[in-house]
Amino acid sequence: MKLRAVEARVLSVAPWLFGLSVLGHLFMVAFQTKMTMIDLLVYRNGSPHLFSGDLYEWRLDQYADVFPLPFTYPPFAAAIFTPMSWVPWEASRWIWQLICLGCLYFIVRTSLKLLKLQDPRRAMMWTALTLWIEPVRTTLNYGQINLVLVAILIGTLASARNWVGGAGVGFAAGIKLTPAISGLYFLIQRRWMAAVWSFVAFAAVYGIGWAISPSQSDKFWFQLLGDASRVGPVGSAINQSLRGALSRTVGHDVKTGAIYIAAVLVAAALTWFAVSKTKDVLALIVSVQMLGLLVSPISWSHHWVWMVPALLWLVYEGGHLLCKITAGLWVLLTGGYLISFLLLAQPNIWDFPRPWIFVLLGWGYPAAGMLTLVAIGLATRRQGNELLSGDEEAADGEPSRVAG
To answer: Least C-beta-crowded within 10 Å: which of 37, 94, 156, 320?
Structure first.
């Protein structure tokens, strides 16, 4: 009751909180030099090289003394980003930030809608708060695409129309491969036509990329795909996948060896535990995305913006004690900027050996992700048992009412 009372008071000032939070962020866009938006620079400056035939040889040297950044997305993504290069840089960065802010609000609002909590003040409150957690902040600071992709996916996956859901997944996977894991959501729900539509949409965007540049498409899909080291340092603390955490633990890149395969099987088992006893749409979406983040070779800390809908589910729908503990852990990890601290503490982005305390802390997001799957599984099972008990009580009570 105390937490509900606190929420009620915050909701009463939610529009003001939302306005101040957004204005604070826009102030930082205008004046904070650390908001380099370096990834946006990669998207903007690298994408025209698709048409000159050297997209995957190009590197961004600006702000990247240790690791000049390459363009790591499929050719279709470069085609999508190319119009951004026609706009002056200052205009590009403002446009992108406004788009990302809109996507964050959409993600929160859609998640709450799936939870049947449609008070607009609640969406304002959570947008204002989550705007300042680490995965969202780093996405905004780097000018990353994560919020846009999550908005596309959660908006289309929540649709009852198979072609909408499938097209959203296929389109997002054509921009960045990791959203392809979302197709598992359709298989779990046995929405076979949605899965077919996702394949059709992906094939279409793949074909567009191939038509624009056959040579660059061939290079990406048949030469570069699967080379995680090209994307960045696997063992750096910013990589919060299972492969990253395991590599830091053993002191070298585990690649796709036995230890990684074992971890993937554990993550898959936990995901099955989370999804096998529920039809809760948001729980299923969150579980599938947690699996994707865990098993991907590279899951930078800013990729974990999926913890926003996960947090909302844990707070409002998860009645199990472990849900509250997991929600608190996510707040501690992301509100405390753990990964930023670990990045400052490591000698450089390439060395794997770490003091044991940093190795342990480096499991933060993967551990919270796996705990989220366990919490969802336990909570949905308890909800199912409560519904079953209620049905049995109603059935048992019916004869006595008739007899009376």
So the answer is: 94
